[in-house]
Amino acid sequence: MPSVSSSRHARAYIIGDVPKWDGPVWASIVMVASACFGGVGPLQAEDKPPPAVEVMPGAGVIGQPRRVTPEQNRSKKRHQGDWGAFNWGNGEFAGFGPVGVYGVAPWAEDWSSKKDLKNYTDFLDPLKAIRLNESGSIWLTLSGESRIRNWYESSPMLGTVGKRHSGRFTVRNLLGAELHLGTHWQIFGQLNNGEAAGWNYYGYNATWRRRLGLQQLFVRYEQKLLGAKTGVMVGRQQFLDAPSWLIYARETPNVQLSWNGARGYAMWERVRVDVYNFVATQVTRDTIMGGGFDDGTRLYGGDVTVALPRFSIAGQQVHSFLDLFWMGFHYGGKLAAIAQLKGSEAGTQTRQNGGFRWYGSAPAFEYDVSGVYQAGRFHPSKSAIGSRPVSAWAVRGVAGWRHSSSSLHPFLGVQAEAYSGGDNRRAHGTEGTFSAPFSPRNATFDLTRTIARANLISAGPLMSIAPRPFMNIRIRVPYLWRESVHDGLYNSSSPFSFLAGSRLRAAGRAVGLQPQGQVQFQLQQHVNWQLDGGAIFLTHRMRQAGGQNGTYMLSTLTFRF
Description:
This protein is about 5% helix and about 45% strand. The chain contains 4 helices and 26 strands. This is Alginate export family protein. Pfam families: Alginate_exp (PF13372). InterPro entries: Alginate_export_dom (IPR025388).
């Protein structure tokens, strides 16, 4: 029978006994087949396990269902690195994405404790630290993910794709290996493949269907320098050192976003610095191991993050982080086109993003505030037309009350965000529409990617409860407005065609209500099942302009090791 371990802030179901495995390396691979029947073993007192729903934390610290301490994150049950003050919460302020038992970036996980068999707590632990020499200085970590998603939409993309009652079925597989060569060198490689099918489906391209691709392959060197953990990463890699609403890993399609280039970082106890320069990866379906460099798409910049001194509000001590960043975008194609009163103008864009993010948490409240200003140039593809300056902005805030120690672990708050719009009547002059072209994480906004972060204001309540250690429920009810009535409404790749010309003003500023709900079950350490559902209820004037109401439902089953 399952036994239960609990602490003030967390509980976890513990199943099974500690595996004892001293067989050959090849035999440990066979154990993958039994992952869904395996569990985690007896706990040591110092492990202080977090709840099961935090096995794979989402980006955005407020998105966590319960509070997780640095001590929990550095226990044998979690696999964050040694990141000092940045081990707070889900660890994303360390710059490598959120990490719990597993991370969005597998190479950010630290499985070194599993070189000792007495630290095994799961049937698949033999795959996480495979010794390749007697001393254990050379060792291999295997990682993987398989995701199956069923997706229903009653009127996709506000009815603009000409499909009704669309059903999509997608499968994604990731398989990675990290070779550790002593204490300083690591080599990480990852393969990806994806398939997609369904009925009345739409929008599939190479990011959904891919035979086999090289998702990541890079070399990393780490060394203690001037008291900091200093590293250099060269090659094809994920990049997650930015607010997830601005840039993320392209989670909705099967093929995640990856970059080619170099990154350097230095991390002290309470301060870290990051610099990078990348070109994007081309994604092709039919060339096995294909996908070269997309020189026309670039990402570059730098970041400084500080764990601020603790302070008190209403007698409660606040942990907080301040992230200051400058980030450059260069891109072309459909994403770079500028909307006009009728149609659009093709070209390329260069945008410089200067921004900040300030996050803080105390026992009874949390907040997350961020802002970005964009400057740059739009270069039309028609050489006879001069380039246009860019001046755009975005602000976002989440704040609320949390009660981690109660039985439901509720978070009750409000989320508001605003993204600047332009003026489509102008063929010249400053372009003011905000742009986030590199796959921002939409789970905190619109999982379907129907409406993008451009010319938009969104505000509404949100609620999260975790009634069981393996279960989390979230509800959001945002209302949407256009920031400028002279600019349209945008989806993930372009403006909606129904909202153009004279209908821009006639449709009014209000867009509609977008209620959303999510239930997540961590069925077992390796298996997560997530149900998402929602609707978009457009205003009468938006429907008159040509938009349609719609509903959606997603079921996502994910296996990780």
